[in-house]
Fold:
Amino acid sequence: MATESENDIEIQPAGTQTEKSKREFVWTQQATWLLLRTRLSMDAEFNRPVCKMKKLWAMVAEKDVLQLYLELQERKMDLWMQQKALEERKIEAINNLARAISSLAEDRHSQSVAQNNG
Structure:
């Protein structure tokens, strides 16, 4: 890493900050409440531990990660279903427009034939 001698400022190589931010967990309100609920549900284990606290916290982390994963999967499925419904409505709208254009073309053709014969 390069260092500026006057101010002693460390200049990080390109990409270091973005790589670090990808690894950092962002604590949302939902994630915070989930952590608190999980920890409180294990209150008895924390009050009378039969194993090291580190192991208990690892169990909390596993439960949190699993729960967050399940919630994300559920949201992903909801988004997928919404996207599918939007695509179906789009196809239906295109088909309705095509039918309307076809009907309009037939009406105009019928009118022009009637005018030519009349």
Notes: Residues 28-117 form one domain. The mean pLDDT is 78. The two ends are 90 Å apart (CA to CA). The chain has four helices and two strands.
